[in-house]
């Protein structure tokens, strides 16, 4: 994009045309550069099969263009019209229990359905032909948030498609029987034609089959994205194609974004604060870092977040004054090329009428509107940072497929939660003011002095080799329990746990012993330090690693709990129990010392300092989430981009404010 984007989802079809003129006037007042249009408009654009009504959309796009506003144009394929479902009820998805979902919401799609594929190709072709050369259209927005609300369909059409996917992946039924371990519980298949989706079963279903169905469902959605993308590339060349991701682990768990990141022209993301009592800005930072990583470190765009409260959680608090700008600029600091919202004008009707927006029900004489205008102006002033990249310090491994496998049933304890481990490791690094890149377990890690591995249950041979090489070549690794246990088919790596990481960690694990609810164990370590573990303990047998912390009580008393292994030119740490944030911090401090990574002890908790750097310069973002003024030392002098003031020595950031300094270095 030529400029930082500021704006949001614009749904003019919910309003009389007279309102559109006020909309564009207000958009200009707020500094809006870009809006996403037409995401749910199929029923209006094609009110009857093959009968198109583009006039209203022509007028909307022309009006936006006349006012200098760019369009991110949706393909409306997340919301097929009623006539389509009346013709093809088989396009409605079926749950694992066999219930067919009904019309009247959105996202009711069986992605294997050929009629859906054909109809969505046709509407996409129509839009590409009509608007592909319109100067307002700067990006295509395919579909909406693949994976939510429906992540998989279990209908007979999907069963047939799944069999084709299995044939393409494994070729023979013998191979499927082998990798799914169908010898167990007598599940052997005589032919691929016998295989169904993993529908509801009396007790636990085959885990490898369930894991493959997740892969299949994800790949099936991706086929549909790629099909629409290719139509757009062919008929409207030169316009980047995206689809809005939801990388926050709390918001979508069915999409392997590493794979999707390779298919889009530009990564875009939607992020909403989950108000469950935890620090929302840490969750935001993690989602933004993950999005940037999925984009391979390239700039990406925040396509949706909220100006204030949402309407779909149990409790939906408003954002505090200043919080919206901290959220928006937090995404920008972590690589977003702007900040966009759901949605421009708050709806009067429909399911989302109580969701905040840029123009709220209260109108323009409102705090939200004033803050929207201030933010629009700030983003305008940040022009120049486009294309710069966020500088990261350390890496965390993340793999959606390992997460899927870990979430299957009948694990050693229901208290272990892979996402909780990822959140905690992230939070510990965040509190040390370290910027985190996420990496796929098979990615090149050589740029990072420290790599943390929270509960990477599923690890391939390639990942195993990758981590060995990383440490051999001087890296520092921190691995949590329940990592490196199974291969890509959920089959336990041969020999003692953790099969994939035994060598690099210099140990084996004889047995796990998860703790009962409320139980904890003490661990004693260097210089009398004590930390506490819960949820999980294990019988660790060092085979080269040195015990650093030892279990003091429980079944594993006297055994090593946290170990350190010098391996090649590097070091690998192993943490065999669940540590809370501050105890995890104690262990990470030792690993960071091994890695030679310094942190920022002078920075207060909840003050973020991030750097974006590139051809146009170095920009230091300071985001103060605290109720006190923060004084942050600056290595080099510079200019406060928002005020124009010169800054040197340190930058003072008022409570709840954000400063961006273009430094001279
Ligand atoms: C997003 C979705 C938007 C809107 C928003 C509300 O997930 O893409 O259309 O529903 O949530 O928070």
In short:
With 665 residues, the protein is an alpha/beta fold.
Mean pLDDT: 97
Cofactors and ligands? beta-D-galactopyranose
N/C terminus separation: 26 Å
Largest sheet: 10 strands, mixed
Q: Estimate nothing, just give the exact number of structural domains.
A: 3
- Indicate the overall shape: globular
Please state the structural category: alpha/beta
The CATH architecture of the largest domain can be named as Alpha-Beta Barrel
Main CATH class of the largest domain: Alpha Beta
Strand content: 15-25%
Radius of gyration: 26 Å
Number of strands: 29
Give the assembly state of these chains: single chain
Question: Count of DSSP helices?
Answer: 17
Which consecutive residue ranges, at least 5 long each, have pLDDT under 50?
Answer: none
Strand order of the largest sheet: 12-11-13-14-21-20-19-16-17-22
CATH topology of the largest domain: TIM Barrel
Q: Which superfamily, in CATH terms, is the homologous superfamily of the largest domain? A: Glycosidases
């Amino acid at each position: 994009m030529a400029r930082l984007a500021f704006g949001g989802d614009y749904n003019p079809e919910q309003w009389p045309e007279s309102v559109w003129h006020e909309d564009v006037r207000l958009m200009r007042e707020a500094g809006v550069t870009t809006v996403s249009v037409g995401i749910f408009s199929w029923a209006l654009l094609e009110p009857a099969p093959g009968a198109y009504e583009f006039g209203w959309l022509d007028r909307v796009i022309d009006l936006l263009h006349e006012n200098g506003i760019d369009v991110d144009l949706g393909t409306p394929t997340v919301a097929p019209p009623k006539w389509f479902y009346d013709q093809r009820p088989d396009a409605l998805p079926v749950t694992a229990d066999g219930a067919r979902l009904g019309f009247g919401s959105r996202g009711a799609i069986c992605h294997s359905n050929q009629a859906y594929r054909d109809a969505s190709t046709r509407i996409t072709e129509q839009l590409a032909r009509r608007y592909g050369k319109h100067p307002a259209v700067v990006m295509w927005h395919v579909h909406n948030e693949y994976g939510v609300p429906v992540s998989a369909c279990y209908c007979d059409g999907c069963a047939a498609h799944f069999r084709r996917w299995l044939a393409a992946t494994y070729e023979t039924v013998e191979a499927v029987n082998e990798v799914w371990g169908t010898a167990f519980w007598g599940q052997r298949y005589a032919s691929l034609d016998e295989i169904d989706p993993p529908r509801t079963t009396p007790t636990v279903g085959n885990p490898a089959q369930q894991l493959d169905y997740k892969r299949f469902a994800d790949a099936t959605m991706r086929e549909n994205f790629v099909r629409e993308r290719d139509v757009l590339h062919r008929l409207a060349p030169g316009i980047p194609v995206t689809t809005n991701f939801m990388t926050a682990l709390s918001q979508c768990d069915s999409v392997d974004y590493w794979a999707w990141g390779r298919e889009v022209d530009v990564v875009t993301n939607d992020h909403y604060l989950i108000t469950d009592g935890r620090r929302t800005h840490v969750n935001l930072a993690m989602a933004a870092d993950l999005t940037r990583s999925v984009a391979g470190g390239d700039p990406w765009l925040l396509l949706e977040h909220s100006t204030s409260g949402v309407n779909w959680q149990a409790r939906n608090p408003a954002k505090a004054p200043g919080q919206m700008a901290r959220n928006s600029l937090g995404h920008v600091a972590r690589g977003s090329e702007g900040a966009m919202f759901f949605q421009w004008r708050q709806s009067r009707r429909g399911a989302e009428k109580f969701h905040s927006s840029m123009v709220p029900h209260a109108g323009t004489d409102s705090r939200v509107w004033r803050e929207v205008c201030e933010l629009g102006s700030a983003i305008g002033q940040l022009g120049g940072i486009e294309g710069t990249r966020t500088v990261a310090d350390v890496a965390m491994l993340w793999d959606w497929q390992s997460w899927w496998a870990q979430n299957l049933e009948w694990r050693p304890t229901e208290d272990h939660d892979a996402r909780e481990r990822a959140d905690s490791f992230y939070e510990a690094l965040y509190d040390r003011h370290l910027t985190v890149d996420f990496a796929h377990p098979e990615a090149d890690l050589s740029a990072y002095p420290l790599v943390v591995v929270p509960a990477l249950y599923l690890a391939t041979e390639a990942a195993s080799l990758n981590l060995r090489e990383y440490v051999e070549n001087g890296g520092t690794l921190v691995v949590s329990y329940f990592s490196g246990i199974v291969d890509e088919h959920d089959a336990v790596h041969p020999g003692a746990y953790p099969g994939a990481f035994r060598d690099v960690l210099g140990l084996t694990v004889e047995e796990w012993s998860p703790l009962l609810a409320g139980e904890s164990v003490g661990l004693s370590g260097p210089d009398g330090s004590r930390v506490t573990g819960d949820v999980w303990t294990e019988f660790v047998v060092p085979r080269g690693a040195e015990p650093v912390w030892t279990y003091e009580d429980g079944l594993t008393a006297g055994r090593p709990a946290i170990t350190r292994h010098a391996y090649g030119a590097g070091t690998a740490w192993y943490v065999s129990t669940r540590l809370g944030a501050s105890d995890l911090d104690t262990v990470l401090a030792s690993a960071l010392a091994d890695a030679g990574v310094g942190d920022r002890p002078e920075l207060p908790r909840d003050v973020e300092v991030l750097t974006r750097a590139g051809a146009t310069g170095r920009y230091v973002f300071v985001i103060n989430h605290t109720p006190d003024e923060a004084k942050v030392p600056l290595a080099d002098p510079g200019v406060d981009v928002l005020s124009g003031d010169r800054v040197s020595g340190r930058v003072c950031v008022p409570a709840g404010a954000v400063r961006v300094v273009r430094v001279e270095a």
